[in-house]
Amino acid sequence: MSQIIEFTRNTFPWGDYVPRAINDWVNEGTAYVAVVEGRVVGVINIVMVKEMGVVWLEGIRIHPSYRRMGIGRALTEYVLNEALRNNARYASLMIAEWNEPSQRLAKSLGFYEVLTLHTGVARPSQVSVVRGDPMRYIVREALRRTNGYFCMTERHWLCTRANEDFVMATISEVYVGRGIGLGSFSVGPPTTPMKMEVLATEEGDFENYYGRFIVYEKELVRSG
């Protein structure tokens, strides 16, 4: 882990979340690494959303001295094959809009854009809170607007194909205001009664705006 922390500490101007998360990933057995001559030079983590047959890919990082050598592609292809063996039907990941190299890699691997998100810490907005069975109609409308995708920020920034039952089992209430707030995911502008980190499908009132991110998806197909 120390090698991973060392080469991911300053991935971006603000640092990186991987050094904080890598211990959990390793303990959960969901992190995969690339090793060259005994040195860890790449890492990626996966999250299986078994209910939806989706694998979420996150935190892919390659040591600066080993980039443009095909390691990122090889590591991603390996975990996609592992996910397929574990009965995943789709793979998804999220890339910052400005990160063109990662977008090119994703597209070359067969990923396509399914959702654009605005991310950051949202200010509270005026909402009506809905709980219980009436939530289902609102969840249904939210999923209609996103073409069946649902996102969350708890423990992982994660987006997945979803149905009403999955969303209902994941959140305890919905917020109705300028948009629809499904926990930390807002369909429309940020819609939340409290200051919190959200992923939103439209721009809105952010206290700290992180930027636009694009969610990509790929259908996994068995060869032969």
What attributes does this structure have?
two-stranded antiparallel sheet; 224 residues; globular; 6 helices; alpha+beta; eleven-stranded mixed sheet
Strand content: 35-45%
Q: Give a count of the beta strands, DSSP E runs of length 2 or more.
A: 13
Question: What is the element string, with H for helices and E for strands?
Answer: HHEEEHEHEEHEEHEEEEE
Biggest sheet: strands, sense, closure? 11 strands, mixed
Terminal CA distance reads 37 Å
Mean pLDDT: 94
Radius of gyration: 18 Å
User: What's the number of helices?
Assistant: 6
Name the quaternary structure.
Answer: single chain
Spatial strand sequence of the major β-sheet: 1-2-3-4-13-5-12-11-10-9-6
Helix/strand/pairing category = alpha+beta
List low-confidence stretches.
none
Based on Cα principal axes, name the global outline. globular
- Percentage of residues in helical conformation: 25-40%
Describe the structure.
The protein starts with a helix and ends in a 5-residue tail after the last strand. The protein is of the alpha+beta class. Strand 3 (54-62), helix 3 (71-85) and strand 4 form a beta-alpha-beta unit. The chain has helices at residues 2-8, 18-28, 71-85, 100-108, 135-145, 164-170, and strands at 31-36, 39-49, 54-62, 90-96, 112-122, 128-130, 149-152, 158-161, 174-176, 180-182, 185-187, 196-200, 206-219. The model has no long low-confidence stretch (mean pLDDT 94). It is built from 6 helices and 13 strands. The strands form 2 sheets. The protein has an 11-stranded mixed sheet with strand order 1-2-3-4-13-5-12-11-10-9-6, sandwiched between helices. The chain is 27% helix and 37% strand.
